[in-house]
C-alpha cells in the first residue's frame, strides 16, 4: 500500500496499465485522473517507478521557478 492511493485510484491505474504499459510519468498523468505532479512526486518518493524512472524535475518534468 502506498499513501494516497486508495481503491478507486488503484482500479484506475490497473485498468490503464492493462490497456498498455505506461511509457513515462507524463503518460501516467495524462491517462490516470487524479495523478498530477504533486501526486506523482509523492508516489515516486515512496518508491514507485515508471519504466524504472522516478519522477522529478531532472527527468524533464515541469519545475517551479522562484
Summarize the structure.
The chain is mainly α and 66 residues long. Helices cover 44% and strands 0% of the residues.
Structure description:
With 66 residues, the protein is mainly alpha-helical. Helices cover 44% and strands 0% of the residues. It is built from 3 helices and no strands. The radius of gyration is 12 Å and the shape is globular. The chain starts with 6 loop residues before the first helix and ends in a 21-residue tail after the last helix. The C terminus is likely disordered.
Please outline the helices and strands:
Layout: H1 7-19, H2 25-31, H3 37-45
Tell me the helix content.
Answer: 40-55%
The total count of helices amounts to 3
Structural class: mainly alpha
Low-confidence stretches: 60-65
SSE sequence, one letter per element: HHH
Name the overall outline: globular
Overall mean pLDDT: 87
Largest sheet: none
Amino acid at each position: 500500500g502506498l499513501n494516497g492511493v486508495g481503491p478507486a485510484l488503484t482500479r484506475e491505474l490497473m485498468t490503464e496499465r492493462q490497456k498498455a504499459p505506461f511509457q513515462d510519468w507524463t503518460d501516467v498523468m495524462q491517462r490516470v485522473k487524479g495523478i498530477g505532479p504533486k501526486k506523482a512526486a509523492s508516489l515516486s518518493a515512496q518508491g514507485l517507478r515508471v519504466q524504472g524512472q522516478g519522477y522529478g524535475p531532472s527527468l524533464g518534468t515541469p519545475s517551479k521557478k522562484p
